[in-house]
Amino acid sequence: MFLAMNRFRIARGHEETFIEHWRNRESHLDEVPGFLRFHLLKGPETEEYTLFSSFSEWESERAFEDWTHSEAFRAAHANAGKTPRDIYLGPPELELFSSVI
């Protein structure tokens, strides 16, 4: 199993805008071989931001890498710029994990 997570620091007061963007986006993940599941996670809050993480689970690292080079990946990210940039406090931070147990 392989996990991919992007951490997003979202300016306080813009959480619903961010959640709605993810709720309404077409991810195209269900058509991708090796994709298992997706969750958008809400984490701790500070005075400046709320932490979110997009979490996707894959059968293998290869399946994830294949997706990042696919037409489905390009289609899923085609509208990424439609969310107002000022809600983000910095770029997303990608974290990749391989299951060891």
CATH topology: Alpha-Beta Plaits
Percent helix, as a range, is 10-25%
Choose one word for the global shape.
globular
Instruction: Please indicate the count of domains.
Output: 1
InterPro entries: ABM_dom (IPR007138), Dimeric_a/b-barrel (IPR011008), Heme-degrading_MO (IPR050404)
Organism: Imhoffiella purpurea
Domain ABM: 2-96
Protein name: Heme-degrading oxygenase IsdG
Report on the structure:
The chain has a four-stranded antiparallel β-sheet with strand order 2-3-1-4. The protein is built from three helices and four strands. Strand 2 and strand 3 form a beta hairpin. It has one domain (2-98): Alpha-Beta Plaits (2-Layer Sandwich). The protein is of the alpha+beta class and 101 residues long. It has helices spanning 15-24, 61-68, 71-76; strands at 2-11, 35-45, 49-58, 93-98.
Short description:
Pfam families: ABM. This protein is of the alpha+beta class. The protein contains three helices and four strands, in the order E-H-E-E-H-H-E.
Describe the SSE topology.
Elements: E1 2-11, H1 15-24, E2 35-45, E3 49-58, H2 61-68, H3 71-76, E4 93-98
Antiparallel strand pairs: 1-3, 1-4, 2-3
Task: Give structural attributes.
Alpha-Beta Plaits; 4 strands; 4-stranded antiparallel β-sheet; alpha+beta; 37% strand; 3 helices
